[in-house]
Amino acid sequence: MNKRELIKLKKKMKVKGNHVIFSLVFLVLGYMIAFSYHLTQQSDNKKSTITSKQWERDIELRNQLVELEEKNRSLQKELNEKQERVREIEKELSQEAQIYFNLAEDTEKYRMYLGKVKVKGQGVEVTLADGAYNPDEENVNNYIVHEHHVFKVINELYISGASAIAINGQRLSHNSYILCNGPVIEIDGYQHPAPFVITAIGDSEVLSSALNLTGGVKDSLVNDNIQFTLEKKPEIIMEPLLGS
């Protein structure tokens, strides 16, 4: 082999060597690109999977929240209805309680008028006594107390708001009767001589004012020669009636 052929052979070998190097470089570069692309795809898939699961979880939580809010509104509505019913029941009970209270109060008042219960309170005490003896007076009845005199005082006291009345300690009831029997008066079968002490429970100011009206009960009795005295009492006690 001559020198020229040797040089040509060296050039061919050099070219082939360069081709091999470039081939290796391109092979490694291609591998790196392929590997990098594969990693990127895996990362994207993983991110996509996480995002999808999270989105599904958010939807589920949102649905649960909506369901709880609807249930809460329903319970609130039911609570409002029950509270309204409770208020209605309380109002009904209040009205019933007031009715029962009024009935109890009326019952106690009727018992008091019937003389079935003991009563105590302020009031007045009126004393009616026979007039001074006048020897020139032919008719003795003109200066003694009669039942109609007693009735005038009793009626005025009841009209003025007296809740209970007694004569000489004997309490009057709704069906009491008073009769004149000579120098005494008879109350429900019991005789009482003069003077007649009439006690009444009620507003002492009102009762005394009613009896002292000009031209009223007091003036009428005094004109009939009846001795009339009136006293306010801070406390009067009357025992209940006994028997029937």
From TrEMBL:
Q: Which domain of life is it from?
A: Bacteria
Q: Does the keyword Transmembrane apply?
A: yes
Decide whether keyword Ribonucleoprotein is in the record: no
Q: Which residues form a coiled coil?
A: 58-99
Sorted keywords for this record are: Coiled coil, Membrane, Transmembrane, Transmembrane helix
- The residue ranges crossing the membrane are 20-39
Pfam families in alphabetical order: DUF881
Query: What InterPro entries does the record point to?
Result: DUF881 (IPR010273)
Q: Which family does it belong to?
A: Belongs to the UPF0749 family.
Query: What is the protein name for this chain?
Result: DUF881 domain-containing protein
